[in-house]
């Protein structure tokens, strides 16, 4: 898993004549400013939305709250590039929204009245913020649910108002969860290439892609990718440094759970409507639009043969990558459990660093490794068998699977480690005392007891592989299309309505982890 990142350093050291002079004068100033503005805007919007919505469903009891708790997860099902494609049609000057506004105001032409163009930094920040806020909502809500009622009561006794409880007690205690959620949202925003490029925002990720595709400059794209990787590491380090002096602890005794305040009547309805607005913008409107476009496309031409080949490619590659990634995650997580070495935690962190890197960075690193391996293997077969093997990894799609495994190993390893951590060490000791080997203990005890976390990790990896766009775009074989690359190609040609069925299929598959998270949340609610 470290080979792609080591190859980035090696390839970047080769240099690219004249590249940095060109980048510094034309590309990097715009790309760096756009990246910082995008991250700042998305971080503020996703952090504010996720935190306020988590407090809304935790601190207040109102009619319909149980629906809102799982509905707020739905934007996770929609990839950012699909949101961009959908809203460009929805908010187009001759689209439905502006058409209705002009009809209400009495205008007859877009020349008389039109909304600001969504292809802008503001539009990109708003769209990504309304899709990525669940990354903040999920961990922050979990922290709010665990906060003790005694803290709230003591604060009220000391004269803190109900509004002050949030700002002075709940939010400071939830800061680690908010920081983790915002970090995940920023990673996803950095990984995005479809929405940013489509909305006219030139981020560093887009610059990596265009440097490789347009200029065919692999050392140059490796240098930008390495710069972006260092930028990501710096972001994480700055966040941790900002809260280095803060400490968080909980009572050893079981504390009473924080009881929400009951709100009925009109105020309760207003709270429900306020909570449903992000769901409408982040999921409802795009999903309804895709349903309508997919139905019109199906009525007009039915399902093309290309759709079934793309579905086969998407599902086959996602399933294969899931098997490989879960197997690798099991090795990493179990090695950390049975190894007594102090280096084991560091090996775990290093092997899962791919998730912190944007897909474009991982893809460039994998491309260098795969191309080197293909070249060595081809020369060996020519020498030994007088026959060319061709591009083995790149031509077969093996490079795509390698990139998926590198990128999403953190998900499977984290999920499996969480499952293994719930199994008492006494089980291991008892099994070893009875003569069972470490491998036998894994297959006879650990796997049966942690199959739920294994299945959850596999599901999350599968869905992320289906939605992954940058790595698939850069590493796919010739004439190979998945749902994501087909949709990107239609959008690049300006015919994104042709990809509505593929986009709808991605959204339907993306709902699977939302259902899983909703079920987990419901079980925790019953446990309370």
Task: Give a verbal description of the structure.
The protein has a domain of 190 residues: MetI-like fold, CATH 1.10.3720.10. The protein is globular, with a radius of gyration of 25 Å. A two-stranded parallel sheet has the order 1-2. With 528 residues, the protein is mainly alpha-helical. It has 25 helices and two strands.
Q: Strands, helices and their partners?
A:
Layout: H1 3-13, H2 19-59, E1 60-61, H3 65-71, H4 80-90, H5 96-105, H6 121-132, H7 134-146, H8 149-157, H9 162-173, H10 175-191, H11 194-198, H12 204-213, H13 218-242, E2 261-262, H14 265-301, H15 305-338, H16 344-351, H17 359-385, H18 392-396, H19 398-421, H20 425-433, H21 438-449, H22 451-467, H23 470-475, H24 483-492, H25 500-527
Parallel strand pairs: 1-2
Helix pairs in contact: 1-13, 1-17, 2-6, 2-7, 2-10, 4-6, 4-14, 7-10, 8-9, 12-13, 13-17, 14-25, 15-16, 15-19, 15-22, 17-19, 19-22, 22-25, 24-25
């Amino acid at each position: 898993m470290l080979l792609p990142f080591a190859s980035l350093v090696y390839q970047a050291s080769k240099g690219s004549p004249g590249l940095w002079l060109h980048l510094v004068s034309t590309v990097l100033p715009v790309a760096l400013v756009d990246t910082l503005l995008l991250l700042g805007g998305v971080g503020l919007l996703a952090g504010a939305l996720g935190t306020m919505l988590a407090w809304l469903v935790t601190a207040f009891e109102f009619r319909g709250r149980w629906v809102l708790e799982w509905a707020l997860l739905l934007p996770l099902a929609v990839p950012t590039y699909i949101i961009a494609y959908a809203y460009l049609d929805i908010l187009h000057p001759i689209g439905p929204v502006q058409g209705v506004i002009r009809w209400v105001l009495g205008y007859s032409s877009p020349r008389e009245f039109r909304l600001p163009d969504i292809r802008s930094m503001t539009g990109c920040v708003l769209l990504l913020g309304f899709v990525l806020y669940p990354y903040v909502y999920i961990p922050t809500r979990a922290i709010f649910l665990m906060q003790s009622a005694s803290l709230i009561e003591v604060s009220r006794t000391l004269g803190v108002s109900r509004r002050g409880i949030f700002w002075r007690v709940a939010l400071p205690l939830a800061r680690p969860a908010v920081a983790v959620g915002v970090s995940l949202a920023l990673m996803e925003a950095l990984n995005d290439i479809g929405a940013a490029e489509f909305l006219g925002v030139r981020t560093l990720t887009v610059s990596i892609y265009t440097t490789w595709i347009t200029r065919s400059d692999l050392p140059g794209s490796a240098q930008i990718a390495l710069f972006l990787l260092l930028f990501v590491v710096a972001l994480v380090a700055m966040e941790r440094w900002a809260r280095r002096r803060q400490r968080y602890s909980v009572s050893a005794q079981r504390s009473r759970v924080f009881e929400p305040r009951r709100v009925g009547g009109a105020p309760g309805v207003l709270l429900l409507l306020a909570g449903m607005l992000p769901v409408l913008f982040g999921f409802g409107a795009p999903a309804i639009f895709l349903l309508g476009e997919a139905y019109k496309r199906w009525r007009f031409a039915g399902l093309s043969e290309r759709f079934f080949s793309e579905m086969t490619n998407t599902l086959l590659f996602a399933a294969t990558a899931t098997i490989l990634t879960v197997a690798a995650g099991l090795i990493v997580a179990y090695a950390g459990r049975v190894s007594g070495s102090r280096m084991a935690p560091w090996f775990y962190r290093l092997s899962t660093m791919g998730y912190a890197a944007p897909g474009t960075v991982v893809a460039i690193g994998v491309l260098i490794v795969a191309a080197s391996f293909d070249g060595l293997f081809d020369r060996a077969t020519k020498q030994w068998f007088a026959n060319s093997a061709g591009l083995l990894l790149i031509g077969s799609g093996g490079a795509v699977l390698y990139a998926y495994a590198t990128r999403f190993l953190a998900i499977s390893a984290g999920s499996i480690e969480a499952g293994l951590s719930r199994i008492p060490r006494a089980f291991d000791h008892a099994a070893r005392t009875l003569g069972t080997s470490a491998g036998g203990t894994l297959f006879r005890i650990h796997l049966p007891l942690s199959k739920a976390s294994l299945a959850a990790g596999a599901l999350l990896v599968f869905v992320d592989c289906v939605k992954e766009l940058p790595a698939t775009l850069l590493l796919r074989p010739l004439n190979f299309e998945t749902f994501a690359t087909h949709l990107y190609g239609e959008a690049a040609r300006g015919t994104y309505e042709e990809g509505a069925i593929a986009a709808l299929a991605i959204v339907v598959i993306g709902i699977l982890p939302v259902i899983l998270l909703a079920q987990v949340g419901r079980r925790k609610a019953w446990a309370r």
